[in-house]
Design goal:
Layout lengths: L6 H9 L7 E4 L3 H4 L11 E4 L3 E2 L32 E2 L2 H9 L5 E4 L3 E3 L4 E2 L14 H7 L3 E4 L11 E2 L14 E3 L3 E6 L2 E7 L5 H6 L5 E9 L3
Parallel strand pairs: 1-2, 1-5, 5-8, 6-9, 8-10, 12-13
Antiparallel strand pairs: 2-3, 3-4, 6-7, 10-11, 11-12
Amino acid sequence: MPARLTDVQIAARVAREFRDGDYINLGVGIPNLCASFVPAGVEVFPHAEHGVLGYGPLIPEAEWAEADFDYVDAGLKFFRPRPGMAFFDMGESFDMIRGRHLDATVLGAVQVSGEGDLANWTFGVPESGGIGGSMDLAIGARRVIVAMEHVSKKGEPKIVHRCRFPLTAPRCVHLICTDIAVIEVSDARLVLREVAPGWTPEAVQALTEPRLETASELCEIAI
C-alpha cells in the first residue's frame, strides 16, 4: 500500500486553497495546522471562534515554554502574534460567522456524504468531541473545506453514501482533502481531482463508498 500524507502534508495542501485577503476559520486538529502553511505572497486572516482574527503561524511545541498563554487558537495551540491581529468577545465572533463574513472554514469530519453532508461531532468517537461552533461555521462560511484522514481508525470509509452520525449541516462541503486524495463536491457529485503519490483512482475508490468521478486533469498531490 502506498504511503499516505501526514497531517502536516494535508494541512499544507489545504492551505494552497487560500486566496489573498481571505478570512478563514481554522477548526481543531489538522485544520489548526494550516495557519503555518499559508503560501508566500498570500495574506489571509485566520479566525478562531473564541474571538481572535488575523493571527500568525503556530509555535512549535519545543517553544511552548516561552509562549504567551493569551495567544491560543480554537484547538488550544499557541500562535505567533501578527501586526493588526484583533481580539473580541465570542458574541462578536459568532456575529461574523452567522453574518457570512468568513470566506472559508476548514473543519475535520467523522463522515462526509456523497452529497456533501457533514457529520463532524458525536460523543464516543475517538476523532470527535462536542459540536462547538461547527454548526454555525458549516452554514455561515462561504466555502467549507474538510481536512481529514480518508478512513476511520477501524479502517472504515469516512466518505459515505449517507452519514450515520448526527449531521452538523446538510450539503455544505465544497472540498475534501484527505491523506490520499483531493475531492471536489459539485452538484451532489464527487470529483476526484488529485491523488497522493503512488495512489490510483481505483485504490482511492476502494476506500470510498460513493462513486467518484475522475477529473480529466487528474494529478498527484504536490508535496
